[in-house]
Specification:
639 residues, alpha/beta, Glutamine Phosphoribosylpyrophosphate, subunit 1, domain 1, Rossmann fold, 4 domains, 7-stranded mixed beta sheet, 14% strand
Length: 639
């Protein structure tokens, strides 16, 4: 994916090390890497796919003592650009990297933190002898770093960090426990001790002279202040205005814009806000009979937009895409979340930028995952109660239901590991004690589940095209989380936005409940009554009305049929069973239970074990990272 990378340390040739890192990161056909020396102490580089940040990086100031690399982009900077231009500090047609450089030269790291957008910036400032890394408020371009023996190594992928010398491959056993229980990692943890995810809204300052790293947070959710008394209608109208502004700036030409549509709310919301004069390509994937395909196609037709459907009628596509998905997400997302991977190559011929509906149901819908009883989190009466409910949510509700406590205790050979996931979650929750209830639960969910789990869909999409996230627009988030919880947490808010802005799209049902997301109870009531009548007719007289399955991809049955040999070759291999992490008898029992098919959602117990073994082979067993890239892929180097 797009990112910045660098090496600063004691190695004689930092550029040579950075070049090796760039090779590890340039594993996609479209990868373009540029790099250069940053003083005598290090080297900086940029990797992308040739859509954003096309200029060779790093960019430097006039005397050559400040070097800067940028991935991503900035929004709403016209006034700032005009001010810098008037002061003679910026050309009229300067790109975003040059804007970032001008802001740094004028205001330092604080100037970078004031920029609005989705980005990560790395600056080597020789005049102060420091490397500075700044990212956006939500960490929309994930980056990892390590600090071994006083050196500093950073990259958008762990494989890039491991390509530098001196980074040990010590397995983080707490990460193993988290992944087995939650199907994701928490906080800034990775698979390896000493390799960390850069927090959002971070300023990292590294000084080679003393080898120290200092991390500061320049923004946090508690900076959002409650709105003055606001009515529901006012909340809807202001939300419409702010979301429209975000969509307008994210659909500016010349980039070809696309939107993936399902039967949900988020993609249709984006589609309805795109100005009729601006072209957009819509895309849908899934089994032909699924609700997603049926309703996604209907949404595109209603909006009068070109549409492309990609079939997922069986699981053979997983066999073709699992390795690439692992390479791109580095195991942070299980293979059973790889839907969309098989569409990327063809989609990249149609679009340059995807406007993602990523977690719009969280931010605009005020939902904590798919949980039906959000109040259980927001109205927890004690720290222990909140921790217990969050633990249950991460284990059983926020994704496919996973292992029970009893199953986990039987699975782990080391009894201490069985409880480590709960301890880790409790510790992460304690770090959010400064958030005001009841918003604390929402912010914890965004920071932990949205950022550490579902954001990986954006990570693998960025191998083919760039991705913009309108539901994480700064101004929109500031507004939504200033609203009273009685408005924000109501599903009616999102429905009202859709109904007022695009009433035709509000009449097309959603895949989750087969009801239109209309704000009128009468409209929803009529559909509910119609579906009840259809079910009665089907039961008494035969299948006159189609009953479409909700799931676009049936991973449960894939694993019992076309994926069975692949999964068994990983899960039941001697190499896997002899690692000493899990009881082989319990692994076999879980597999047999899934194969019998007499329980619901056992895939949430099995799939993490498969992914974890693949991670072990990639990160822990491998002596080098040669398996991560193809030396025959075309690359472009600029030094």
């Amino acid at each position: 994916m797009s990112g910045v990378f660098g090496y600063f340390g004691s190695t004689a040739s930092a550029v040579t090390v950075a070049r090796t890192m760039g090779v590890a990161l340039s594993h996609q056909r479209r990868s373009v890497v540029t790099l250069g020396a940053a003083g005598a102490e290090g080297a900086l580089g940029h990797v992308g796919i040739g859509i954003f940040n096309r200029r060779a990086q790093p960019v430097t100031n006039a005397d050559g003592c400040v070097h800067l690399c940028l991935c991503g982009e900035f929004y709403y900077q016209d006034r700032r650009r005009a001010e810098l231009h008037a002061a003679g500090a910026l050309a009229v047609d300067a790109d975003d990297a040059t804007l970032a450089l001008a802001m740094y030269l004028r205001e330092g790291a604080t100037g970078l933190a004031r920029l609005n957008g989705a980005f990560t910036v790395a600056v080597w400032d020789e005049s102060v002898g420091a490397l500075i890394i700044v990212n956006d408020r939500f960490g929309l371009y994930p980056h990892y770093y390590a600090h071994p023996a006083g050196a500093l190594i950073f990259a958008p992928e762990i494989k890039g960090v491991l390509a530098a010398p001196g980074v040990p491959r010590r397995l983080d056993y707490t990460a193993v426990a988290e992944y087995v229980r939650f199907q994701q990692l928490l906080g800034e943890r990775t698979w390896l001790e000493g390799v960390h995810l850069l927090p959002p809204a971070a300023i990292l300052r590294y000084t080679p002279a003393d080898g120290k790293v200092v991390l500061t947070k320049y923004w946090d959710f508690d900076a959002i202040k409650p709105a003055p008394r606001v009515s529901f209608d006012e909340a809807v109208e202001e939300t419409i205005g702010r979301f429209q502004r975000a969509i307008d700036v994210m659909t500016l030409p010349p980039a070809r814009v696309g939107v993936y549509l399902s039967g949900g709310l988020d993609g249709r919301t984006i589609l309805g806000f795109i100005h009729p004069d601006r072209p957009v390509q819509t895309l849908t994937f899934g089994a032909a009979s699924s609700r997603d395909v049926h309703y996604g196609t209907a949404l595109a037709q209603c909006a009068g937009r070109p549409h492309r459907w990609f079939s997922l009628d069986d699981g053979r596509w997983v066999l073709e895409e699992a390795d690439r998905h692992l390479m791109l997400t580095e195991g942070m997302h299980s293979w059973m979340h790889a839907h969309g991977m098989s569409t990327l190559e063809e989609a990249s011929a149609l679009i340059d930028v995807h406007l993602s509906g990523w977690d719009g149901g969280t931010t605009m819908g005020g939902r904590i995952g798919e949980y039906a009883d959000d109040y259980l989190f927001r109205e927890a009466t004690s720290e222990a109660t909140l921790a217990a409910r969050m633990y249950e949510g991460f284990c059983r509700a926020f994704t496919w239901p996973g292992l029970t406590d009893e199953e986990a205790s039987a699975l782990f050979l080391d009894g201490n590991l069985a409880g480590r996931a709960r301890e880790s979650l409790t510790a992460e929750l304690a770090r959010t004690a400064h958030y005001a209830p009841p918003y604390r639960a929402d912010y914890f969910y965004i920071l932990q589940h949205c950022r550490r789990s579902t954001q990986n869909m954006i990570v693998f999409q960025r191998s083919a095209f760039e991705v913009r996230c309108p539901f994480f627009d700064y101004d929109l988030i500031n507004w939504l989380y200033s609203l009273p919880m009685s408005i924000l947490a109501s599903p009616v808010l999102h429905r009202a936005v859709i109904t007022r802005r695009m009433p035709a799209l509000a009449h097309i049902p959603c895949e989750k409940d087969n009801l239109p997301p209309h704000s009128s109870p009468l409209v929803r009531g009529r559909h509910r009554a119609m579906h009840r009548t259809q079910r009665v007719v089907n039961r008494l007289a035969g299948p006159y009305f189609p009953e479409r399955p909700r799931l676009y991809a049936d991973y449960e049955n894939y694993l019992r049929h076309e994926l069975k040999p692949w999964a068994e070759a990983i899960l039941l291999a001697p190499r896997t069973l002899e690692r000493g992490l899990f009881d082989p008898a319990m692994v076999r029992l879980l597999w047999e239970r899934h194969q019998r098919g007499d329980e619901l959602w056992t895939i949430g117990k099995i799939a993490p074990l498969i992914t974890l073994e693949l991670v072990m082979r990639r990160f822990i067993d491998a002596a080098d990272q040669s398996t991560w890239h193809d030396e025959n892929k075309t690359r472009e180097w600029v030094s």
